[in-house]
Write a structure and sequence with these properties.
The protein is an alpha+beta fold. It has helices spanning about 15-20, 25-30, 115-150; strands at about 5-10, 35-40, 50-55, 60-70, 70-75, 90-100, 105-115, 155-160. The chain has one domain: Alpha-D-Glucose-1,6-Bisphosphate, Chain A, domain 4 (2-Layer Sandwich).
Length: about 160
């Protein structure tokens, strides 16, 4: 199953970064691939369900499967739903926050499995990593902007790994 990891270092403490990571509604306002997001149930913790909407108005739900306060968040898209808009049969996104160098390194990991067998694998080769890199770059930029507004912090280092 493909996995892509991306990291970004912020000049902010984990306790300052964590509220930014878990605020999906604020992220949706800034990310160019989303038109909205809302928490449907469970404000914080495993089992929290949210709905995301893309620019075409297509919505899907995501359920939190990992919540380690201030350290890790993981969501799983309901890719089995008939109206799930992407060619994925599994999609998990995790964030891990690690204190480092007077700030916090955030690692975003995308674990997924494409639909459509061989065609899906070919599609993943063509657009997979590039698509997730774009999402992570936009997400990190949004997080950096929101952190700068709330605490005056700015990103000091950016590193992506595959």
């Amino acid at each position: 199953m493909p996995r892509h990891d991306f990291e970004h270092h912020f000049a902010a403490l984990p306790e300052d970064v964590w509220p930014v990571v878990i605020d999906i509604a604020a992220a949706a306002e800034a990310l160019p691939h989303l038109s909205g997001a809302e928490i449907l149930s469970g404000e914080g913790g495993v089992g929290r369900v949210s709905r995301c909407t893309n620019l075409k108005g297509q919505s899907w739900t995501e359920t939190c499967f990992l919540w380690e306060e201030g350290r890790a968040l993981g969501t799983r898209a309901d890719a089995d739903a008939a109206d799930y808009p992407y060619p994925l049969e599994k999609m998990e996104l995790t964030y891990h926050l690690t204190p480092r160098d007077g700030g916090t390194t955030v690692r975003m990991s995308f674990d997924y499995r494409m639909k459509y067998g061989l065609f899906g694998r070919l599609l993943e080769l063509v657009i997979g990593k590039r698509s997730f890199r774009k999402i992570s770059t936009d997400s990190f930029q949004d997080m950096r902007s929101r952190l700068a507004k709330t605490s005056g912090s700015a990103a000091i280092k950016h590193r992506q790994t595959a």
